């Protein structure tokens, strides 16, 4: 199964498209000739990206400045895309918090749940009926390797990502034989190819460069996996190592260690 063929009427919808994984995938899809709908909060940034991609690749790029954690704003987008020919959706938008759950800002935590989980759930549902009717489509939801294991001091994030992981993999099996591909992207640490030394975290300095996944390599590996309708893609050596460790290490050992690290990040 290949990715759906680009067409004048179809659009690839990418959330979290203003930066990171979402931006990298949007750029690759434009390079392949797909017309796009880019979704993020910062309209000025999206407009600059749209102009870049239209000029470079000759595709149509629509911009939707939407805070997907806001139910009313999300509904406006959902009502629109239900009526559009969306042949690819990349649910990449997400945020995280670190530190004890009881100490977190509740407004931020509920927004995190709405963005990381509810928006993925609702947007996937909004485009799925049309994909099934056309018997072609591709869904990629960005979960996380963090969704594989309970991590103290990252509780809300792992709640949302564990849900996205399981939801997407369940949907993958439901959609077998329908013509619609569904792949979970479960990355570990991902970063820019080059980071100024002044902006490097302790983790950036300790972990060798060759172990990191760049946004660009993550996008390339993800789209290859989606085109083959793989259930899950874990890009890059460090992410693969984390995925392997989380599947075999006892939770009673792994969780406290990771929780200590995440508390420091908070």
Note down, in words, how this protein is organized.
With 266 residues, the protein is α/β, with parallel strands linked by helices. The chain has a single domain (11-265), classed as 3-Layer(aba) Sandwich (Rossmann fold). It has nine helices and nine strands. It has helices spanning 20-31, 43-57, 71-81, 106-134, 155-174, 202-206, 215-227, 237-248, 251-265; strands at 11-15, 36-40, 61-65, 86-91, 137-142, 180-185, 190-191, 213-214, 232-233. The strands form two sheets. The protein has a seven-stranded parallel β-sheet, sandwiched between helices. It has a two-stranded parallel ribbon with strand order 7-8. α1 packs parallel to α2 (43-57), α3 (71-81) packs parallel to α4 and α4 (106-134) packs parallel to α5 (155-174). The longest helix is centred in the middle third of the chain and has 29 residues, at 106-134. It comes from Corynebacterium deserti GIMN1.010. Belongs to the short-chain dehydrogenases/reductases (SDR) family. InterPro entries: KR_dom, NAD(P)-bd_dom_sf, SDR_fam.
Radius of gyration: 18 Å
Mean of residue pLDDT values:
88
Please report which band the strand proportion falls in: under 5%, 5-15%, 15-25%, 25-35%, 35-45% or over 45%. Answer: 5-15%
Please name the CATH topology. Rossmann fold
Biggest sheet details: 7 strands, parallel
Approximate shape: globular
Tell me the count of domains.
Answer: 1
Terminal CA distance: 42 Å
User: Order of helices and strands, N to C?
Assistant: EHEHEHEHEHEEHEHEHH
CATH-defined architecture:
3-Layer(aba) Sandwich
Percent helix: 40-55%
CATH superfamily: NAD(P)-binding Rossmann-like Domain
- Structural class per helix/strand content? alpha/beta
Identify the strand order in the major beta sheet: 3-2-1-4-5-6-9
Number of helices: 9
The low-confidence parts are none
Please give the number of β-strands: 9
- The top-level CATH class is Alpha Beta
Family: Belongs to the short-chain dehydrogenases/reductases (SDR) family.
Protein name: Ketoreductase domain-containing protein
Domain Ketoreductase: 10-193
InterPro entries: KR_dom (IPR057326), NAD(P)-bd_dom_sf (IPR036291), SDR_fam (IPR002347)
